[in-house]
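ingest -> fold -> write
write: protein_1
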Amino acid sequence: MKILVLEAGTKERSLIQNAVEKSGHEMLLGESAEQALSLLQAGETRFVIADSEFGGLQEPDLLRRFRSATSQPVYVLVIGSGDGDLTEADDTLYKPLAASELRARIMIGQRFLSLGDSLSHARDQIENMAVYDGLTGLMNRGAFYRTAQGELERARRSASSLSLIALDLDNFKALNERYGLETGDEVLKVISQTIREKSRPYDCIGRWTGDEFVIALPGVIGADAEKITDRIIKGIRSSNITYQEAVLNVSVSAGIASASNIGAATEVEPLIQQARQAMARAKEGGGNQVNLTYV
């Protein structure tokens, strides 16, 4: 695999190159953010390691442009220096760099890309089957359950972690009653698209029931799962949803069930229900917030 590196520091660049090559990959040295986009569009690479202080990386929506440059999943590992680092990254590693930790993160990124490829292949195979929700285009309940079960089995075999997120719109019933079911459906479509955009390309996303959505996050627990959830919630809150020129203020409550020690007795259904219970607690706390539970 070719890994594109955007790093101006000689010492860090040398360390990254050593880690990339010892991991069995080839390093492509990028000179600018625009060159990185060109290489991604050409299919030369799908893995980017970038210093947050590298020229051009602070451009708004740049990482989103990285991901939209190709139809295949793109993984971005940011080398950060503290506050203000890029929040849209798939992973962040802080200076000073440790070679062993960098190699471990490269391995994780490679696995995520592999999972993304497997999921894309699976989606191609089942495209003609009734697995997608007709309104939102997300996986329906049954398809999500089966896919999440597969993610759990992979996590069990690799002694990895898994988090389940449950999201539910606040006061959706009142919105339907005030603006009508058609407007409610349009809101669900916008919310679904926002969840897709704010999630990682290899995450498993489904519509569970009504205005409730579920997401499986392989390899993520605790605070990292909260960061992804917060990103989704903020994206939904800032979505431009209107009805007859009136802006609709839409918010969601979210619950997370994080499992770090996945044993033989761990099953998907209890994880989903624990995430939904955590979501209910978030609603009881006033909504528009996240509740995290470890299992």
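write: protein_2
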Amino acid sequence: MSKPGAAPRLYLITDRHATGGRPLVDVVAAALRGVAGSGLPPALVAVQLREKDLPGRALTELARGLRDVTAAAGVGLFINDRVDVALAVGADGVHLSGTSLDAATAAAIAPDLAIAVSVHAVAEVAALRAAAGDRIGFALLGPIRDTPSKRAFGPPLGDAAVTEAADTGLPIVAVGGLAPEHVRALRAAGAHGVACIRAVMAAPDPSAAAGAFCQELK
């Protein structure tokens, strides 16, 4: 069985501004209750703490709260960009973007952390695979469908981009405007898993929302 930190089938990405005033840790804990008993093994689920506007101390405090609930649920925890915070809280991995450290440097600093990367074009996946594919656990590719938070990265890539990216051999987790009804087509296109932000973070019932994704991913 996979262990937390491996490429996830379901990747829950945080946005505390989307929770309607509910504490982020409470929303994530509720979502993870939807994973339990869904039939999808918890080790195939991961949470990415992605709160780029928080300073280091506040981010670390939030990460500790998420480490507690993710560890209790048996799911992985990735920290966006901050290798130091990931190490400080005992996270499973770090998620790198185009403005982060490169994967090789992150691996040298923290060899025990799993490494994920964000990409917005198939060519980026191929380049990463060639440069550091043995150290990258998975690539988050998007936007696959239209979503306001990803419009700055260009038009939606569509399912065909998932197939092309998956052909590089790097596990691909699709992101961008996704709902449970998109899961089966994306898996058929070659996606290892799917990621979501507002579909769970903003849901009135995060447990049911996460559970719906899990049911399609089983």
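write: annotation protein_2
The chain has a mean pLDDT of 94.
The radius of gyration is 16 Å.
pipeline exit 0
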